[in-house]
Amino acid sequence: MAFDGVTIANVVSEMRKELLGGRLYKIAQPEEDELLLTIKQPGGQKRLYISAGASLPLIYLTETNKPSPMTAPNFCMLLRKHLQNGRITDISQPGLERIVHIQVEHLDEMGDLRHKALVVEIMGKHSNIIFCNDDNVIIDSIKHVSAAVSSVREVLPGKPYFVVQTQDKRDALSTDYAAFRNTLSAKAQPAFKALYGSFTGISPVLAQELCYEAGIDGERPTAAMEETDYQALFDAFGKMVQAVREERFSPSIAYTGKKPAEFAALPLTMYTSGEDRLVSYDSMSDLLEHYYAEKNTLTRIRQKSSDLRRIVQTALERNVKKYDLQLRQIRDTEKRDTYRVYGELLNTYGYESTPGAKSLEALNYYTGETVTIPLDPTLTATENAKKYFEKYNKLKRTHEALSQLTEEVKSEIDHLESVSAALDIALHEEDLAEIKEELTESGYIHRKGGNKKQKITSKPFHYISSDGFHMYVGKNNYQNDNLTFKFATGNDWWFHAKKIPGSHVVVKLDNAEELPDRTFEEAARLAAYYSKGRDQEKVEIDYVQKKHVKKPGGAKPGFVVYYTNYSMAIDSDISGIKQVTAPPSHS
User: Fold this and answer.
1) Crossing angle for the helix pair 227-245 and 191-198, nearest 10 degrees?
2) What's the Cα-to-Cα distance from 160 to each of 90, 121, 130, 134, 155, rounded to whole Å?
3) Is the pLDDT of residue 184 over 60?
4) What CA–CA distances, in Å, run from 578 to 148, 264, 415, 519, 565?
5) Beta partners for 131?
6) SS3 breakdown of the chain: % helix, strand, coil, rounded to 5?
């Protein structure tokens, strides 16, 4: 999935149409490497989302707002000071570089007109948002890069801004046939690699598409290409350049089966046969938001949940080691009944033992077999019997104690694995707050300074089945308990992955007498998807009416029992199930 120069050209085209002439109404910094700009236009407000995140740098127009920190970071305050109410005069992209220049004019403290530039560099881990004055001197940046970090370019206040030329690539927009042919033929590489390695703005997938349109195998070495091959490839290349110049973009996501394979600002015709298909979008911003919104959210929430994950993983590893040790100790007690039988047989047949004997053969009246009983030759038969009974009683006590302990530790492991599953599906900070509260009440996190329990605003996932039934999915153990025992009523249906940590799924029956088969299947898919088994081809799901689900006294959050149920094996594909974005409150 390449956020290449052509994709940025598409985004810049959309930005020019929507933002030019607009005034910067709000400037927010939701995350340390993100900006969310709100621009006022005569037709209403527009929002521009910019991320310089190393793992997922992005820029696109959006209608979605994001909460900001109570105290704005310094970079955000600086932008507000200089650019608040400033007018966007130009938006440009140098060549097909992964760079966007946003020019803004504003009045300074003296009322004089000033010009500033916000430079967005979408370059993987080197991505940045740089604020420059009209002399191209850096005022500040969202990431500072010192000489200790980069010997090529410092990005610090007072330093001149320039684009680093780290790759010897030609400008695709100003390349003629002679330069195109000479550049490619000079590289002893497969055709598609030579293409994206030689010209700005072209990603590997777009290079493969150009080869496909030219009727050339992208893996074919340039040294093996004929003149007609170069000409056909240049014709496809020229069509691409012309489309970019004329801003004729056709953003689409290419799917192989049900999974997205690639996206591009121009049609990927190589994905139009067999299981492959293209899904078109009205704008590249819509495509990027659809494609990356969930991924970006998950990336952020995983960063924020790292401390909780470490606590859970450490506790889980400790309990698993303890459990394994206890199981080994229990196995060591398996001989206890043998010692009891030896003692009983010695009391019965001990008179046959001769003084100083090291063993005694006796008939085991429990099994009808003859057994050989080891003896201590320094003890009498009665004393040997007493010794075996002592061993038996000691192992019996050990077994009873360990049985209870292993049950407690296994319960703790199951609980921690369920918390781990909840962390996997958390999407928002309020989801993490509820998990943190559960870990605090379980003793894994110390509540500082007598802090009271946090007010939780997290809500379960809410879906509507194809038949119109409301389906709810708990995000964590507290929500699972609440859904099952406070929200659901007796005849509602309850679903859960069999013997796998996961969410409780409740389907409200409302006034219907029964659920259609399709709703049963969709609810089971939700239970499969929101479980640790989601990557399996099929997941076994138990389902039963809520009235048959019970919670034992003193059980961990989310733990239930049921003794009569139905089961089905189903996949975890929930792509066709409608989700409600704002679930109602449940008490």
Assistant:
1) 40
2) 21, 16, 11, 11, 8
3) yes
4) 51, 26, 30, 12, 27
5) 118, 140
6) 40, 20, 40
What DSSP designation does 270 have?
G
Q: Which DSSP string do the residues of 362-385 spell out, in sequence order?
A: EEETTTTEEEEEE--TTS-HHHHH
**What is the C-alpha separation between 334 and 311, in angstroms, rounded?**
35
| pLDDT confidence of residue 453 | 63
State both tokens at 464: 């509507």
Residue written as token pair 């899904």: 279
Nearest CA-CA partner of 129 in 27, 45, 231: 27
- Residue ranges of alpha helices (H) inside 473-571 are 477-482, 517-529
- What distance in Å separates the CA atoms of residue 195 and residue 206, rounded to the nearest whole number? 9
Round to the nearest angstrom and report the end-to-end CA distance of the chain.
43
- pLDDT (0 to 100) of residue 582: 46
Cα dihedral: 95, 96, 99, 103 (round 10):
50
Q: How far apart are CA 142 and CA 74, in angstroms?
A: 9
For residue range 267-315, list pLDDT tens digits in order: 999 988 877 888 899 999 999 988 886 666 777 788 788 899 999 999 9
CB 475 within 8 A of CB 425: yes
Owner of token pair 């040790």:
325
Q: Quote the CA–CA distance of 496 and 56 in Å, as a whole number.
A: 34
What amino acid is encoded at 447 in this protein?
A: R
- The one-character DSSP state at 453 is P
DSSP-assigned states of every residue in 22-51: -EEEEEE-SSTTEEEEEEEETTEEEEEEEE
Amino acid at the residue 537 = E
Eight-state DSSP code of residue 166: -
Task: Give the residue among 469, 489, 487 at the shortest CA–CA distance from 478.
Answer: 487
Q: How many CB atoms lie within 10 A of CB 70?
A: 5
Q: What are the structure tokens assigned to 332, written together?
A: 């060591």
Identify the band that residue 450 occupies on the pLDDT scale cut at 50, 70 and 90: low
Residue type, 532: K
Tens digit of pLDDT for each residue in 185-240?
988 899 999 999 999 989 999 999 999 999 999 999 998 999 999 999 999 999 99
Q: CA 578 to CA 465: how far, in whole Å?
A: 7
